[in-house]
Write a structure and sequence with these properties.
about 270 residues, alpha/beta, Rossmann fold, seven-stranded parallel beta sheet, two-stranded antiparallel sheet, 8 helices, 9 strands
C-alpha cells in the first residue's frame, strides 16, 4: 500500500511511539495524519510534525481516547477535511504496575491487585484501541455498501490497514498483570478483526515492541531500567521510537504482512 494521499489516524500521538509513527507517515507522503492524545502537548507535536514535513499534514485532537463520542467526532472531522481514515495505529496506552498478589509486611494479610486499576488499563489499552479500529472499519464498510460493493476483491486494492501496539509483556512479565493481559488481548483482537475486516478489504496486524525509550518506560526510573531491562536485552540499549515507527510503516505498506511482528531487541524476561 502506497502512503501517498492516504489519511491516517494515530492515538497516543503526542509522545513516544505514536509521535514517531505520525512523523514517519508524514515523511512517507500521507495526505493527513490525525494525532489524538489527551495531553495538551498534542498541538505542539502536530506543529513539529508539520515543520519537519514542510507542509500542513498533521491535525491535533485533544481528548480522552476511551470516550466514544470523542472518537466519532474525530473521525467525522478528519473525513470532512481530508476524507475517510484508512490507516490506523492506536498507540495510546498506560501502565499501572504492581505485583498481582503480595503480603502486607505490617499485617501479614494478602493484598491483591486493585480491580479499579485493572479496569482502567483494560479501558485504555484494550477496549479503546479496538474501538478506534472498528470505527474506521465500519466507515469503510458503510461506504462500500452505499456503492453496492460486497465482498472485497484483490483487484480493488487494499482499502485500509491497521497495526495494534502489543508488547513483549504479552508473554507475561512480573508486576504487569493488567498491562500484560491487555497486550495479550490485542493479539486475539487483531486476529479476529483480520478474519472479519478482510471482507471489506482491511488488513490488521499487531507489533510487539520491546522496551522502548518512551515517557512510559522512562517513568520506571533509570535504576530500574539499568537493573531489570538492559541486562536482558541483547541490543544492550532501549529501542528508539523511530525504529518501532519504521517497522510499523513497513507493516502498513506491505500487503503480504499479517499476523504479528516482534521488535524486541533480543529481550527475554528474567526467570
Amino acid at each position: 500500500m502506497d502512503f501517498k494521499d492516504k489519511v491516517a489516524l494515530v492515538t497516543g500521538g503526542a509522545s513516544g511511539i505514536g509521535r514517531a509513527v505520525a512523523a514517519a507517515m508524514a515523511r512517507r507522503g500521507v495526505a493527513a495524519v490525525a494525532l489524538v492524545d489527551m495531553s495538551d502537548a498534542v498541538d505542539e507535536v502536530a506543529a513539529q510534525v508539520n515543520a519537519e514535513a514542510g507542509r500542513e499534514v498533521a491535525l491535533a485532537f485533544r481528548g480522552d481516547t476511551t470516550d466514544a463520542g470523542f472518537r466519532g467526532e474525530v473521525h467525522d472531522e478528519v473525513a470532512r477535511r481530508h476524507g475517510r481514515v484508512t490507516l490506523c495505529v492506536p498507540a495510546a496506552g498506560i501502565t499501572r504496575d504492581e505485583l498481582a498478589v503480595r503480603i502486607d509486611k505490617a499485617t501479614g494479610k494478602e493484598r491483591i491487585y486493585p480491580l479499579e486499576k485493572f479496569k482502567q488499563v483494560v479501558d485504555v489499552n484494550l477496549i479503546a484501541p479496538v474501538y478506534w479500529v472498528l470505527e474506521m472499519v465500519g466507515r469503510i464498510a458503510e461506504d462500500r455498501a452505499a456503492r453496492g460493493l460486497k465482498r472485497w476483491s484483490p483487484d480493488e486494492g487494499i482499502q485500509g490497514a491497521v497495526v495494534f501496539i502489543g508488547s513483549v509483556s504479552s508473554q507475561g512479565n512480573r508486576g504487569q498483570i493488567s498491562y500484560a493481559s491487555t497486550k495479550a488481548g490485542l493479539e486475539g483482537a487483531a486476529a479476529t478483526i483480520m478474519k472479519e475486516a478482510m471482507f471489506h478489504g482491511v488488513r490488521c496486524s499487531v507489533i510487539h515492541p520491546g522496551f522502548t525509550d518512551t515517557p512510559m518506560v522512562r517513568a520506571m526510573g533509570s535504576d530500574y531500567v539499568a537493573k531489570n531491562i538492559l541486562p536482558y536485552t541483547q541490543l544492550g540499549r532501549l529501542i528508539r521510537p523511530d525504529e518501532i515507527a519504521d517497522a510499523i510503516c513497513f507493516m502498513l505498506a506491505n500487503s503480504a504482512v499479517s499476523g504479528e511482528l516482534w521488535v524486541d531487541a533480543g529481550w527475554h524476561a528474567p526467570a
